[in-house]
Design a protein that fits this description.
Layout (H helix, E strand, L loop, with lengths): L10 E7 L4 E5 L2 E5 L8 E2 L2 E7 L20 E2 L11
Antiparallel strand pairs: 1-5, 2-3, 3-6, 4-5
Length: 85
């Protein structure tokens, strides 16, 4: 497989089982539960995607819409790495 952005052959496949322990922070709101299927990283119990070790591009079609999840919780501000400030 070649990267869709830089054409490198340094593409790695990632697979992890998260069950209902998936978490993301989006626009200052936190979601806990199953991974959403609509953001390009797998969904449900599994996180699964390919990304390029050369340029960092996730191998999928973009742009994606907003995640569709049941509910978000308010959180404190976070930095670009998702750490609470």
């Amino acid at each position: 497989m070649s990267c869709i952005k830089c054409n490198s052959d340094r593409v790695i496949g990632i697979l992890g089982k998260s069950g209902d322990r998936y978490n993301h922070i989006y626009k200052g709101k936190q979601y806990d539960g199953y991974a959403p299927f609509d953001i390009g990283i797998g969904g449900g119990d599994y996180i699964q995607f390919n990304y390029c070790l050369e340029c960092g591009q996730i191998q999928d079609k973009f742009p994606k819409g907003d995640p569709v999840v049941e509910e978000y919780d308010d959180v404190e501000e976070v930095d670009y790495e998702g750490n609470y400030c």
